[in-house]
């Protein structure tokens, strides 16, 4: 057994597929391959999975991921059709085609593999996004530095988290009971200091089992995890995409966006928030035929 191996925990019935992040004597640090969970485990409790496609946990995660992607694409198509009809009615006098301006995303991720998946999905859904891989402990400093530089409409602050097994207190309302919730809270506070209005900057924060209430009170619009459950790697991305394509004249439909995630109401929650999608006139033209005048 070595770093990078795919494994499951025997004592948990192989419910989650992990990759070994590091090994230390008889203990291993694990990162979920589909869920934003960071865990440690005795090496003798681990079983190597040579082919992840043969893992029931991995197959189920892939099915849920596919279903979520299908919902995103269907909703985007419906919105595009609705938007075209509305713009035809609103702009009928101009007879000019309009252009779209979805909200811009800054995505900070504590996992390089998840970041890659997230950026692929933003690109697939045509959401302008900039992604940065940064350790959870450095997120507050990174948010402070990057927000003025990229001036996003939406910032995603995510990575790995989890309720500590050997915690000093059984109080799940204490930030000390979580692996990285305090780091996420610190980053959310910096983001909210940068932009006080929750409609001026949409903040999506948290990972598996994160302290939902603390993240919301720190200033997040959407956060995980109300039921302290595992959330899928792409759940924060789904919320960011939904925020990016919800018109500024509308409030993001909370039941719709939460039900659209893989984790559902136990995994993600949020507050009323105005969308970031805009349209404009006229649609830019090809300027190859423009003649200089000076």
UniProtKB/TrEMBL annotation:
Which is one Pfam family of this protein?
A: Peptidase_U57
What InterPro entries does the record point to?
A: Peptidase_U57
- Please identify the protein, giving its name as recorded: Sporulation peptidase YabG
Q: Organism, per UniProt?
A: Paenibacillus xanthanilyticus
